[in-house]
Design a protein that fits this description.
about 100 residues; alpha+beta; three-stranded mixed β-sheet; 5 strands; globular; calcium; EF-hand-dom_pair
Amino acid sequence: MALKNISYRRNVASDGKLEMSLQEFKKWIKRFDLDKDGKISKEELQEAVRANGGGWFSRLKGSHGIKVADSNGDGFIDENEFNNLVDFAQRNLGVRIISY
């Protein structure tokens, strides 16, 4: 499942993965930080997955993403753990982070 509805540069590779810069990915994911606390909660990540075609698996993928990316176990992904979220997105959400 590739991320959809991104108003940034769209570049889909031949393998179907959406290619975007790290800045574009950060900008996209921060749209789901509804309480604007600078952290992504499980619910916010689930909404991000759901909004981009996650369907029945959005809750599962969102929960799994938090478990994978939340290295300090506080239930949120903060700026220090953001690279973990990038790795998760590249493995599970059909995204490839590239340099432009």
